[in-house]
Amino acid sequence: MRKRALVVGLGIAGMSAAIGLRRAGWTPVIVERAPERRTGGYFVGLFPEGRQAAVDLGIADALHTRNPERAAGANSWSVDRRGGRRPALGFLDQPGGPSAVLRGDIEAALWQSITGVEVRFATTPVAITEGPAEVQVLLEDAGTGAQYTESFDLVVGADGMRSSVRRIVFGPDADYLTTWNAMICAFQLKEQVPSYGASDSIIIARAERAVWVFGLADHAPTALLTYRTTDIQEQFSGSRVERLRSVFSGIDDPVVRHVLDSLDEAPDHLFDSVHQVRMPRWSTGRVVLVGDAAWCMNLYSGMGATSSLRGGAALGVALQEHPDDLAAALNAWEAGLRPFVTGHQRSARLKQQMFVPSSRRAEALRSVLLGLARRIRSRRPVMETGGPQAPALSGASR
Fold this sequence. Notes:
Blueprint: E1 4-8, H1 12-23, E2 27-32, E3 43-46, H2 48-57, E4 64-65, E5 76-79, E6 85-87, E7 99-102, H3 103-113, E8 118-121, E9 123-130, E10 135-141, E11 147-152, E12 154-157, H4 164-169, E13 177-188, E14 201-206, E15 209-216, E16 219-228, H5 232-235, H6 240-247, H7 254-265, E17 269-277, E18 283-284, E19 287-289, H8 292-295, H9 304-321, H10 326-355, H11 360-379, E20 394-395
């Protein structure tokens, strides 16, 4: 009989894991707490490892990328304290030449590929009990309140940074979430900031607060507001929009005003505190965590989507290579993936300074270093930035 796996979460990590499981000969069943599939989403940079995982998962041809063409006049701009703008290195200028996508672009490609997989919306796990040969999961239908128990050979927790599977099986969030004393708000703009090109990217990085506008081809930009704070709980009280207006009130700039005004009209946005998930092990028995539930690198790392795709693809490979030994498969999966995850978790601290400097001194140092990097880059011969033949994806990535 085919082995059955319960995948908790219909995001990038969950659908990637489901595809990997199905390719390994398993029957995945996905449960999702939301009543329907979420669409849209904010800007994501997909790095070479993520693009290769997209190929491995068979979704590359369906994945639409949105890199602006510099030849068509798209630029990245840094705005100084006097309101002057100058050419800058943007997020997409990082080594590896990340592909610009929306989170919804990746999820749409994955959704197309999981046709035939059973998906149950408005359903969450309430209890998980492992037996010698199976896992008993008590599930709850949010619509009716009905609870029922079902047996699986494996449970995959892909339900985000505040994972219910992790909490049920491994323990409370406080045991695994590291605090970064920072907040983020990400959302789609209806239109570009006035006086900028349609696909331009804009950076205003001040001490302890920053505004980023990510320009895209064939789509309105997305925005990121991020700031540092020592009182995380206070940030969730009252109106989020008013909170952000207060935090950014000292920056009198048209870009900031446009972004804040746009937030009032945004149908959906992410507003949350910044953390990383640090765990000594991502599995126990017949329960395994993937994506943000296991290792959340956080938004500053820029590697969340890449690691989620890679984690799901690698899990399928490990199960194929160890079809009769689940423990060996999970050990091999984690051993192969952990060095990649740990390295990017560590580098995220430096990247945080690039996103939102911690002080005026850090702000000045950041400006000097990026200015030097831009001058060095401008002297190099024009060439592709994707490294050694990174897999091409569909859309406007070239």
